[in-house]
Amino acid sequence: MNTIPIIIDEKKLEVDPGKTILEVCRENEIEILTMCHLKGVLDIGACRLCLVEIEGINKLLSACTTKVAANMIIRTNTDRIKKYQRITTELFFAERNHVCAVCVANGKCELQDLGYKVGLDHIRYPHLFPQCEVDTSHPWYVMDHNRCIMCTRCVRVCNEVEGAHNWDVMNRGHQVRVISDFNSPWGESVTCTSCGKCLHACPTGAIWPKAIVQGQLQKNPGMINELVEKRKMKL
Amino acid sequence: MKSETAVPVKDMPKTDPRMKLIAAKLKKESFKPDALIEILHTAQNAYGYLPKEVLSYITKALHLPPSRVYSTVTFYHFFSLKSKGEHTCLVCTGTACYVKGAQAILNEIERGLGLKAGQVTADNKLGVQVARCIGACGLAPAVVLDDEVQAKVTPEEIVQKINAKIGTL
Ligand code: SF4
Ligand code: SF4
Ligand code: FES
Ligand code: FES
Fold first, then answer.
1. What are the structural domains, with CATH classification, of chain A?
2. A194 Cβ below 6 A of ligand 1
C-alpha cells in the first residue's frame, strides 16, 4: 500500500492512509489521552479528550475519529490542547460523585490516572452532586452510576462484541444514564448474558464484580480487542 | 435472571382498538426496525402516552433491544412514559368522533370538571387527553376512560362516569 507523509509534533512520518490520527500516534509512541476510545469497538468521539490541532483547521479535532490525510501537520501537546484536557478532566469529576478513597477502583482507575496525568489538584467547576443509583441486582456485578462518566464503552462492547445489547443510554443532558433493558434492574435483564465484557471495558469503578476484595480489582480492557481479533481468525 | 418480564405478543388485549391500530401500523411498515419512531408516534397518539406493555409489544415485534427502544423514547420530548393523572380520560377527536360530537364532550368536561385537553387536576387524580382516531370509529363518539373504551357516549354520561371514578361530588 502507498503511504502518505504527515508531520506530528515536528516529527516526519510515512503512514498508511485510512488510519486515524490516534492509531498513528499509538504506533509511533506519541501520547494521546483518551477515555471513550476502546480498541476493538467503534470510535464515537464522545469524550473530547483526544483533541489535536491540525494546521489550517481552526477547530480542534478528535484524534480517534479523524483519519490522517497527506501532508497533515498535527500537534498533540500545545498549551491550547493541554488547557482543554484539563477542563475535560475537571468536568468528568464534577458531573458525578467520585470519591476515590472509598472506590473499588482506587489505584486501578483510568479516570484517576487521567487526573494525575493532567495534574489535577482542584476542580474549578461546581460539583453537580446528582442523585445516582447503585444497581446491585445482578448476581455477580454491580453498576454504580455515581462513578459513570458516560463513555459508553460498556454499551458498545455489549452491542458490538457480545451482541447482547443490554445497555443503552436514556435521556439527554445532565439526565443521561446508562440503562439496562427498559431502565429496569440489571438483574432482571432478558438480554444480558452475564459475560462480563462490560466490566472489563469500563474505565472507572462504575461496573465491578461483587466477588472482589477492596483494592483487588482487575480489569482487562485490552481483552476486548484480543477477542475481536481472535474472532476474525476463525482458526 | 427472570426469563420473561414483558407481555408476550399473543397475550396482548386484542379487543383494545388502540392495539389494533398499532398492529396495523407495524404491518404497514413491514415490521422494519427503522420504522420504530413512526410506530411509537402511532402508539403515543392512540394512548396519550406509551404504556410499558405497549412498548414491550413493539420491541418484540420489531426485534429490537429493549434498551434501544427506551433510549429512543426518552430522547424525544414528544413521547411520554407516564399517563398524566391517576385516572385518564382520552377523548377521540378523529374525524368520525368529531362529527359525532367530540367537541361537545370536551366542552362538558371543561364545564363540569374545569379541565382542558392536556391538563391534569391539581391532586393528579385525573388527566384529560385527546387522540386522533383510536380505531373505534364504529363506536363514535369514543372516549377511553382508563383502559375501557366508552362507546357512543353523551357528554353528561362521560362526566358522570369520571366523577364516579375519581370520587368527587
Ligand atoms: S455482562 Fe455481557 S451481556 Fe451482560 S451487560 Fe455486560 S457485556 Fe452485556
Ligand atoms: S458504566 Fe463504565 S463503561 Fe459504561 S459508560 Fe459508565 S464509565 Fe463508561
Ligand atoms: S477518545 Fe477520542 S473523543 Fe474520546
Ligand atoms: S375517529 Fe374516533 S375512533 Fe376513529
1. 4-24+31-77 (3.10.20.740), 102-221 (3.30.70.20)
2. yes
